[in-house]
Inverse folding.
């Protein structure tokens, strides 16, 4: 019998960590833990210590004997890890601010996981995840890699298809939010109990259908309620996305429910207008989050705080860490829970190749995620799904080879980046801005100077 | 709240029915029933009454208020049915005896669901299932059709892809047997607890993999134990299949575990040798079952018998009715149980088209079966899977059009039927023998006279 | 032996017709014609008579005995036709002007076959092509339909997949231009002789590779010469597309050569800037062509003009009619020429379904086009190809059902139309502007008023 | 301008060589040759010299200045080769006799390219072709490999997909025979002129359709004439296959025309009966050919014989060498002829993967074969096509790894080998019989002793 698991959290100095710790504490009856290692980079040491101290207080309060280890070198703690979770942000919020502000300064969507910004976040992150895998091969060859570093879909695809780490599962909080959303809509109709919400697509680019526990497909009902009535203006969604209305007729033609990030694609221009205002008033998401973070760390410093403070939920990643804890719990205890994760397609989505990483409703078992077959989409979602997967492949190609042409191709295809001279301009500006975090591209960047 | 469900069982006069009744009784806490209608044809009236009386005794003993209705006209009882289960046998055991003896008389496998016999069982059964669907459209348009009439895969494919009845699920007892088999093997290794056994393929033609609750793939371990050792000679399998050993090296190359029926394909000649002996001694399966049936009905006549007699388990369909009850229970209560059923592929098996009916591990929900994605097979199983699906399509084409050429094509492709003059001879002999049950082929049969 | 073929040209009053006639005359040795019927609508009668008279003069000059018939009712002339060619424009150049100016007035690409304008051209044209097919079924059930009405890909897909007219082939002049273009580039390298240029994609959205007659793949060489040097600024292309440079690095990553229309997608913003200027100076393509047309018809009126005037080549459709004549010649004489046509995919492009209509290098035989297998594209072209095909399917769905949601979905997906409120605005404005030609949408349009 | 090509023929001592030389001579106007090297193994030196001398006489008679070189070491002559053709037979006719007689001695089809014999021919040949490729990489990296060593499909697939030699084309004479066959049938109907016969499938396992030069699909007409009438008993086919009649109804259901080798699959039992007779009378094909060969070499020895003798056509490979010469001519001169060759699928057959090697009508260009898209087959041919491709993959896997399980799996799947104990017995007997030519299997063979 195993004497509890060891979890290594890379990016452990994040302000999210208390939620993660809370999630583990809530599951302590089922999930036996022996050690939690929080790892961060040297520059994040101060934050790591603040968060680490708080984590220890929370665990102590819960009367648990878990060891909390802090480290600024993952190689010191990876040995014998059972689960490695990743929540790091290469370049920090400063890099995110550039991902947002540079595209916006040229009149295009600036966002950390979509468009030009998302592509550059992938460029910075993918080489790091591959380095982590390299260390894991050596130090903890049987560990699971639970990735919730964004852009989670591309990072997971790189980990599995480039890094060859099959025991990787990517995770996002958006599906849970939308499941709750559907539930709430159907509750007003008296049919919300134990709704089955089935998702398929890519990370931040998936669709869902909902079925009642009497077997009725209520997708259309929810579409009507959400997009053809005035009742649901205040339905909860993710904090970090402007809640502009979708076009009802377009969603109806989809035949499936879109996720919040689809706003960037389905109502691009309206989303852009809002972002331009934020840009002008220095209120882009990174800028807002910097403020929130500052406040959170002030709170965390309080040596008496031994529970997750309310303010954390405003941070945007609500349910994220909770999902991660439940995922680890399901794997560890072979619970066969249905969760929505990024995993290898294996035929589940007929419109993509078997090897592609998709975000899809899956049974979570001790041997990994078993995706539920979804079949084909109708022409609308299929077309954009296939476009985005191609774009993702180009991003991964560029991120792992340093090929400038692949990067430009990804920019050319991305629906949030107007193609042409302006596209190359933004690309080059971002390359120069993020130079320090893009060693593979140094040859290409040198030519731009 | 629903006032209990109505179940119509076509072929209700079968000797299996007591097991079905027992299955419902065992689930009476969860599964609320108001009426069970047992339907059989006029010629089966006597058996129907014997079995019906026994069913009533069993239900009474269990202190349940379920109404049991007997009928020789399904149209009298289909109205408002919630579930229609099918377990009928067109032409009875006499037809089965012909399916077995005629091919054997020409030196080829005679079996009720495989080879020439299985093809003719499909020819007789498919038009009847389509007629049943026709009645259901009119009388119970929302009912589920739970098919366990063999050949279950082809009958289910015809029901869904020809009859258009999407709410059809096909069921077989073999996967349960093999799950138990894997469990038993692994128990000897101390790892049998809550094994995850994942199936994919076609009815009576599927393969499986097994994983422990610690996430270890133990498929290879089980292959070694079963086919490369002497320990498991007495592993339980289905009663109606000769337990000859597979070639270890061939199974090892498969990389997945075969089902019992694969013996007909993987060791055809050896199976045939055994059947030839049975044929000579008038002990083919139909002949044996006729005897068993006779004994069972003698037992059922006993007005004091109010429980399923032991003898029934020898009948071959062990766990069959049990599986059917659990399936209905899972649908009715949206239990999301993992079961192995015949349902539409939808991408789960990448080697077949999305529309094909496959037998595959699925989550059973109130809205139907959600198959788990399996992905691609290696060359060995893939090749025979694709062959068999094409053959099945030809059988369904012939069964629904009366096309002699399609029937001969199916015979030509079927691995259990040597092609050539002999194949046409057996085909023609079977057409003449089953003429009464093949109205669609009457033009083709006329030419043979 | 056949006594010459009968060709019916719908839209025969077009200014292109003299080129078509010239093409037939040039092939008169091989291609035996008995009658050419020029058909146009009542409003086009004057032009039809001018062009018809000229056609007769050209044929007379060539000493041919072909009958030229003029008609304003296709039903009068379709009987016994061997080939029906379509070159009509529903709504005339006035409609084209709206397709261009309305999108441009909202700051998006205005073009007759791409973007919002192309979608509306499809909406107007597809119902008419289906009506023509309806008449052909009755009057000339064995005729070939040679479509060069734009958007040729979608119109051909509707003709085959909706209208069921399998003997439809779509045609475009762009591939010929690009073949000549490659030839010219390679001639400067001394390797232009009999280049093999292989195309695949969709109409106005295809790519090509080039091979020398020594078997060398020179695609990369041509990419370098065209997009990474200053030598080829004056390479001939189509008259109606602004010749802005592609980004070299992006084309290099493609690995295949783009067609001229790809400029709208690969350098959208730059193309738009140019169009905005044209828009401001009332020099959009429709406006320019109206002028050219006026001049052409003045020329055609000259009772002494009996040859194709030079001015016609400026019209944009250069080689178009020539290609049509060669296509008819190849079919009629089973010439097995390699041509690039719109035909059913049948596996040629692995990235699209077998049923899709694609534009692809094919052998032209008496039984139709046999496409050459192309296989898979790399991620870049694949992604946009799959996007565009989905968008095309939505356009056809909308055009044949009048579904507003499908139209809005097509707008949302189209890379040339920024999605959001602005997209719906342009859609609605175009619906109102083209109302007279969109009877299927009248319900949807009524709601907009 | 090139100074003529160099052709290296491996297995040059074959009795076929005079036909090959004749083919080159007939094309000497078009095809400029500078050297022909005939290579054979040490044991074949005598034959090589006889054939070589004869080749020289033929060339001299034709007044050509081609150099003929003879060698027993291919490495001596491969340098600068433009074309390497392979027509060798590992183990000679003695090995072929075993491939035929051993299976027959157990009552199953014995044939050199199909069934157990064909599988062992592949086992012996594939390692040798990979060795040749190894030498070519070093000595003539730009040469084309024209393979007509049987089993040509599997050998070509190994060369391309294992050896990575993309410039390989496989060739067979069967398609030419069937094209002529269709032509002859249609000539009796006055429609044979320039028939277009389109093939798709695998080597010795393909189907075809025929179209007149007026565009009429006459496949059904030919099926009727060949299989539903008594007129065509004497239609020419390949010398080495017993001409038993197919079942008309089965072929009709196929909807396409089978090739001669399909007899082994479609009328297995009848073919077997014939072979059993040959076996008993020591007249299996190898035994007959040994006699023919003996006579041929006696003829070749005649120092006055300077033309291909009539007797050669009885050898079975009629048109084979002719096809090879035309293939080389088409590549060399970029003739874009339509020929049927084994090449990479690339989507041409939608029922197989893009990477599979298929035998398919193709345009032969200087850069290789461009297959014509065929699309999907109906269920009958599709099912057996997919079965055979899987079996071929297993054969190649076994041949390149020495894996006994893969070999047994191939035997189990092959429709000409009854599965079970008997199958393993034949497998083992063949392994022992061919031991000298199967070094990769030595470990597996050791276990059998």
């Amino acid at each position: 019998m195993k004497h509890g698991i060891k979890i290594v959290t890379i990016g452990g100095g994040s302000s999210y960590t208390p939620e993660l710790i809370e999630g583990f504490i809530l599951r302590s009856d089922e999930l036996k833990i022996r050690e939690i290692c929080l790892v961060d980079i040297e520059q994040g040491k101060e934050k790591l210590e603040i968060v680490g101290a708080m984590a220890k207080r929370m665990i102590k309060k819960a009367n648990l004997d878990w060891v909390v280890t802090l480290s600024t070198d993952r190689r010191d703690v990876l040995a014998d890890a059972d689960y490695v979770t990743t929540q790091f942000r290469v370049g920090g919020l400063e890099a995110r601010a550039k991902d947002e502000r540079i595209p916006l300064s040229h009149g295009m969507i600036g966002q950390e996981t979509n468009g030009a910004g998302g592509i550059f976040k992938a460029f910075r992150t993918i080489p790091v995840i591959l380095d982590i895998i390299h260390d894991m091969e050596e130090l903890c060859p049987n560990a699971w890699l639970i990735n919730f570093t964004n852009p989670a879909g591309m990072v997971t695809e790189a980990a599995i298809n480039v890094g060859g780490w099959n025991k990787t599962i990517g995770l996002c909080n958006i599906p849970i939010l939308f499941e709750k959303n559907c539930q709430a809509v159907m509750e007003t109709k008296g049919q919300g109990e134990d709704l089955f919400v089935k998702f398929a697509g890519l990370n931040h680019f998936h669709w869902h259908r909902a079925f009642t526990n009497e077997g009725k497909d209520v997708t259309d009902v929810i579409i009507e309620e959400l997009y053809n009535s005035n009742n649901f203006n205040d339905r909860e969604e993710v904090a970090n996305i402007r809640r502009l209305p979708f076009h009802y007729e377009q969603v109806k033609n989809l035949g499936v429910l879109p996720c919040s990030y689809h706003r960037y694609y389905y109502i691009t221009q309206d989303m852009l207008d809002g972002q331009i205002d934020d840009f002008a008033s220095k209120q882009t998401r990174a800028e807002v989050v910097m403020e929130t973070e500052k406040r959170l760390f002030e709170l965390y410093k309080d040596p008496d705080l031994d529970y997750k403070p309310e303010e954390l939920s405003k941070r945007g990643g609500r349910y994220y860490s909770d999902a991660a804890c439940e995922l680890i719990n399901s794997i560890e205890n072979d619970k066969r829970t249905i969760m929505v994760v990024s995993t290898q397609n294996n035929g589940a989505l007929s419109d993509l190749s078997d090897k592609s990483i998709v975000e899809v409703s899956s049974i979570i078992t001790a041997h990994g995620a078993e995706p539920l077959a979804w079949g084909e989409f109708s022409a609308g979602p299929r077309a954009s799904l296939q476009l985005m997967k191609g774009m993702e492949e180009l991003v991964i190609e560029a991120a792992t080879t340093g090929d400038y042409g692949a990067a430009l191709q990804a920019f050319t295809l991305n629906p949030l980046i107007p193609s042409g001279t302006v596209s190359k301009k933004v690309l080059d500006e971002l390359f120069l801005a993020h130079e320090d975090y893009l060693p593979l591209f140094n040859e290409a960047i040198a030519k731009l100077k």
